[in-house]
Amino acid sequence: MSEALLEVNHLKKYFPVTQGLLGRTVGHVKAVDDISIRLEPGETFGLVGESGSGKSTVGRTILRLTEKTDGEVKFKGVDIHSLSPSEMRLLRPRMQLIFQDPYSALNPRVRVGDAIGEALLDHGLCPKSEVRGLVLEALEACGLSSYHIDRFPHEFSGGQRQRIGIARALILNPDLIIADEPVSALDVSIQAQIINLFSRLQQSKGLTYLFISHDLSVVEHLCTRIGVMYLGSMVETAARDELFRQPLHPYTKALLSAVPVPIPKLKRERIVLKGDIPSPANPPSGCKFHTRCPFAVDVCAAEIPVFRDAGGGHFVACHLA
Amino acid sequence: MAADSKLTKLQRPQAKLQKSSLFRQSLRKLMHNKLAVSGFGVVVFMFVLCFIGPFFSPYTDNKINMAMMNKAPNLTHWLGTDALGRDILTRVMQAGRISLTVGLASMVLSVLLGALLGAIAGYYRGLADQIIMRVADLLMTIPGLPLLFIFGALLSEWKIPTDYRMYIVMLMLSIVNWPGLARMVRGQMLSLREREFMQAAVVLGLRDRRKLFGHLLPNIVPLLIVMATLNIGGAILSESVLSFFGLGVMPPTPTWGNMIDAANNMIDFQDHPWLWIPPGLSIFATVIAINIFGDGLRDVLDPKQKR
After folding, report:
1. DSSP string, A245-272
2. Chain-chain contact of A99 with B200 (C-beta, under 8 angstroms)
3. Are B221 and B274 in contact (CB under 8 A)?
4. Mean pLDDT over each residue of chain A, to the nearest integer
5. Range of B163's domain?
6. According to Swiss-Prot or TrEMBL, what is its membrane topology (chain B) (predicted)?
7. Which of B22, B206, B219 lies at the smallest CB-CB distance from A152?
8. CATH code where residue B126 lies
9. What is the ipTM of this complex?
10. Count: domains in chain B
11. Do the Cβ atoms of B219 and A96 come within 8 Å?
């Protein structure tokens, strides 16, 4: 097996819940609870799950925007959570993040060209005289024009801003790009453009993506492997076609049955989940999904299911599958 | 073909306009606010009057002229003369130099001090924040005017040469003024550093220096400009108050404040109004013009602050 680009082992991120004047810790929100991901170079891993399942926190903890509680994150074999701040800074250009909201991810008082080029300058990745040329190149690679370089973010639409965000990440020639719901703030026609941009860039630059999304059709279009998260834990991981053809976990089945299809008269078996996602501060016992699972039996409430290989790299955490 | 060339001609200048800076955009908005523009006009007029006016006056030597004591406004002395026969108009202009300089200089000093300390406190937090903000709190719990009075009285007690007093007054005013500014800047810093574009700066691995000066400070500059402008008016007022009580800049150096001191006795107040009305009006006009201009600036640069 070749060396993985990114290896996340048993990553945990708990946020303390404090109460009272002295800030006594009364519990923990288990936003990420034992997640393992392995990313080979050049692949696109899709992380899906409903709101509050901890997808974004996984992305942010991998990038060390928040410190982990437990587990390890290895990037090219280096445990990045053990690096000193200055070592971490040197590693930053290798892994980049695309933000969900393109409006707040750009500083309103920094010109687009400066925003894209400043990291190059700060890391001394190229001489000052060449920055502008590289910025223009990145702008064009992301479908923007050269005359955009001296404008301010407020002069752009949402889709254009997302392109600026992508150009800003791309100019550093990263190995890994974590895209945190990069299209969910855009309208559908723009979504398609941005997704196509993602796949075109991957082909030309050999990028590896960790693509976080709640939109299954987007993930199906872009990803080679997909992981499904529920309440901070991974419930199923499989290659894309395998997952869509034969989902094993009831939660995945429910998600897939909710994807709209273009033929309204087609009879489908819908699995409708009742209620909301439970609080991650007080997750259900046993299998976290048993409170909403239509197939739950006694063992589900008592025992935590093991995340095991169901054959051919298709992992699932369910007693019944 | 002809239509084509017309089109390009029409588009060209627009493309040039597009590359406008945020500063120019704000300036254009400010020009629409007539009140603010006239406020700015008055301020500029006062500056020109005070700094250039005296060159055209024949009375700049301030010679004592017993024959011309307490004369009412006339053709040779447009605003009359004071108890020592000195020309009031010339003295008002010379006093304006001092008052405006003190206002400006103490503003610059307190903005520098306040912005720097506030930025450090808000950006690094922790111990630095605690120390700076507790000192600021301490200074803010002491009422400003009595504090200035004590300072002023100390200066008189220590017999500080009158030439230096002007500079010490500037320093005093900025010491009283910086805590408010530091608080504002710190608050802004605290809210800005949580914004998503600052997380983006972390992911890009930018240096602290660039985060602070390239990203945070440009977002604070509009607030600083507004605060600084409004601060000048306050500083001029405080200096006048001090000088009026004889604790600021000392005569014979004229300032608007110590000129109004003439209104201290009933005879001058009632019978010689030309002694105190001109400097009084100067303070009034300058401060109100600065405040109106500052309000206009705030509407343009910092719309959220509007109440």
Report:
1. H---SHHHHHHHHTS--S-TT------P
2. yes
3. no
4. 88
5. 114-301
6. Multi-pass membrane protein
7. B22
8. 1.10.3720.10
9. 0.85
10. 1
11. no
